Amino acid sequence: METSIQIEVRSTEIDVLGHVNNAKYLEYLEWGREDWYNRIGLPFEAFSEMGVGTVTVNININYRKEARLGEKLTIRTRPLRKGKSSFVLEQIIDNERGERVADAQVTSVTIDLKERKSVPLPPELGKWFE
């Protein structure tokens, strides 16, 4: 299942070069992932009830084109692949002209919230990768 959100670049996200600071893209991606989890019915509370959390262990991001103040961006998120306790989401950020601004593959691991160690993906999450 692919989801998408739209945002508008704010002045607090701009660096001295007049475009979005690279670190802000990680925040945009996080907003997209949170929306994806919510739409598949697994908000933070659902994971907590299972005693499981997700932690991001790797983000491979490509910055393709600068984004500037006031631009409207679309962040799309979709499941890419899963392992035993890890999974990868693909995320794409496009501007309002349909130009690719950035793309990323984000690897996360499911952990037991008490033991703080990796655990197999819950079926409620794993089914979205099949």
From TrEMBL:
Keywords: Hydrolase. InterPro entries: 4-hydroxybenzoyl-CoA_TE, HotDog_dom_sf, YbgC/YbaW. The keyword Cell membrane does not apply. It comes from the Bacteria. Gene3D superfamilies: Hotdog Thioesterase (3.10.129.10). Belongs to the 4-hydroxybenzoyl-CoA thioesterase family. This is Thioesterase-3.
